[in-house]
C-alpha cells in the first residue's frame, strides 16, 4: 500500500514538532523530570495534539514506549461504559517501565457525556499513582470543571503559514517533488492552519504531477481557484450581475462544486476584498444566512443567485 504521508511524516521527537514552542518546552521539562501531571490538550484538528502525546511517550519511556502508552478514542463510545471497562482495565495494571506510570491518551475526550466524564474523574484520581491521562479535545469548555482543574491545560493554536510551508517544502523535497510558492500559498489557504489537511492536499497533488503548482493543487482538491471566486464577487460588486452569475455557473459545472463548497470559499474570500469593513460585515452576514438556507435544503442555484444579487445591490449603494 502506498504510504500515507501524514503518518510517514509524523514527528517522532518533540524537537521535530513544528510551532507550538511553549507547549514543546513544557513537555520537555516533564521528560527531564521523569514525571508529569494529568494533561489536557485543547485545540483545533491537525495541530499536533496526538503527535505531541506520542512524542512525549517516546521520550519518557524510550524504545518500548508502546507498552506504556494506550490510545483510545472517546467518540467511538461516548457513554460511561468505556470508562468502566476499557479505561479502568488499562489504568489498574502496573506500569511496565522504570518511570513508574503509564499514559492513557484519550482522543476526543469532549465527546464523553458529563456522566462519563464524572466517572473518568474518579478513575483519574484512583489510579493517578500508576497512570497519567492525556485528554485531547477541540474545546476545553466541554470538559467538566473538576477534570480541568486536575489537569495542566495546553492550548494548541492553528499552525502559522510559514511553519506549514516549511514542513510542506521539507516533505516535497524528501519525496523528490517540486512545489511552487503559489502552490504552497494555495495549500496554506485551503488548510486553514490544519497540518493534517495540508499534508493530505500535498499528497493528493503529488499524485497528479511531479511539479506541483497552484493549478495542480486546485485540481487535486476540486476547489475553485481563489482568484476565480474573487473575480465573481468583484464583478457582482461592480454591478455586473449577469457576468458574475455566468462565471459562477461555469465554475459550478466545470468543477462539479456543491453550493456548500462555493459558499465556504466565498466566505474566505470576502475578508480580503478591497472594500470597507462595514460592507464586509454586511456581506458576511448575508453569506451566513444563505449558507444556512443551503444546508437546510433550499435550492442552491436560487440561493447563490440571491447572494450574487445581494452583492450587486450592496456594491451599488
Ligand atoms: N505541530 C506539528 N508539527 C509537525 N507535524 C504536524 C504538527 N501537527 C500536525 N502535524 C501533522 O499532521 C498529522 C496530524 O496531526 P495530529 O494527529 O497531531 O493532530 P491532532 O491535533 O491530534 O488532531 P485531532 O484533533 O484531529 O486528533 C500528523 O501526523 C503530522 O504529520
TrEMBL record:
One of its GO terms (cellular component) is DNA replication factor C complex. It comes from the Archaea. One of its GO terms (biological process) is DNA-templated DNA replication. Residues 35-162 form the AAA+ ATPase domain. GO terms for molecular function: ATP binding; ATP hydrolysis activity; DNA binding; DNA clamp loader activity. InterPro entries: AAA+_ATPase, ATPase_AAA_core, DNA_pol3_clamp-load_cplx_C, DNA_Rep/Repair_Clamp_Loader, P-loop_NTPase, Rep_factor-C_ssu_arc, Rep_factorC_C, RFC_lid. Keywords: ATP-binding, DNA replication, Nucleotide-binding. ATP binds at residues 43-50. Part of the RFC clamp loader complex which loads the PCNA sliding clamp onto DNA. NCBIfam families: PRK00440.1. Belongs to the activator 1 small subunits family. RfcS subfamily. Heteromultimer composed of small subunits (RfcS) and large subunits (RfcL). This is Replication factor C small subunit. The lineage of its organism: Archaea, Methanobacteriati, Thermoplasmatota, DHVE2 group, Candidatus Aciduliprofundum. The gene is rfcS.
Amino acid at each position: 500500500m502506498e504510504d500515507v504521508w501524514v503518518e510517514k511524516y509524523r514527528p517522532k521527537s518533540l524537537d521535530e514538532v513544528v510551532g507550538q514552542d511553549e507547549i514543546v518546552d513544557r513537555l520537555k521539562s516533564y521528560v527531564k523530570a521523569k514525571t508529569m501531571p494529568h494533561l489536557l490538550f485543547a485545540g483545533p484538528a491537525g495541530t499536533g495534539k496526538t503527535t505531541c502525546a506520542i512524542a512525549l511517550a517516546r521520550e519518557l519511556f524510550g524504545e518500548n514506549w508502546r507498552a506504556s502508552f494506550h490510545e483510545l478514542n472517546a467518540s467511538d463510545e461516548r457513554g460511561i461504559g468505556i470508562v468502566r471497562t476499557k479505561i479502568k482495565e488499562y489504568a489498574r495494571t502496573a506500569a511496565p517501565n522504570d518511570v513508574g506510570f503509564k499514559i492513557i491518551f484519550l482522543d476526543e475526550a469532549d465527546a464523553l457525556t458529563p456522566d462519563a466524564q464524572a466517572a473518568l474523574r474518579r478513575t483519574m484520581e484512583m489510579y493517578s499513582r500508576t497512570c497519567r491521562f492525556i485528554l485531547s479535545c477541540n474545546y476545553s469548555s466541554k470538559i467538566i470543571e473538576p477534570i480541568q482543574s486536575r489537569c495542566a491545560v495546553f492550548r494548541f493554536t492553528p499552525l502559522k503559514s510559514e511553519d506549514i510551508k516549511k514542513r510542506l517544502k521539507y516533505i516535497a523535497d524528501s519525496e523528490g517533488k517540486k512545489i511552487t510558492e503559489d502552490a504552497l500559498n494555495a495549500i496554506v489557504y485551503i488548510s486553514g492552519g490544519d497540518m493534517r489537511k495540508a499534508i493530505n492536499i500535498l499528497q493528493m497533488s503529488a499524485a497528479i504531477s511531479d511539479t506541483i503548482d497552484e493549478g495542480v493543487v486546485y485540481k487535486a482538491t476540486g476547489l475553485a481557484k481563489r482568484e476565480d471566486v474573487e473575480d465573481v464577487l468583484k464583478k457582482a460588486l461592480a454591478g455586473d450581475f449577469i457576468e458574475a452569475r455566468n462565471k459562477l455557473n461555469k465554475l459550478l459545472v466545470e468543477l462539479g462544486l456543491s453550493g456548500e463548497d462555493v459558499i465556504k470559499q466565498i466566505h474566505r474570500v470576502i475578508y480580503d476584498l478591497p472594500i470597507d469593513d462595514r460592507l464586509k460585515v454586511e456581506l458576511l452576514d448575508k453569506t451566513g444566512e444563505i449558507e444556512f438556507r443551503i444546508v437546510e435544503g433550499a435550492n442552491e442555484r436560487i440561493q447563490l443567485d440571491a447572494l450574487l444579487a445581494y452583492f450587486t445591490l450592496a456594491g451599488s449603494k
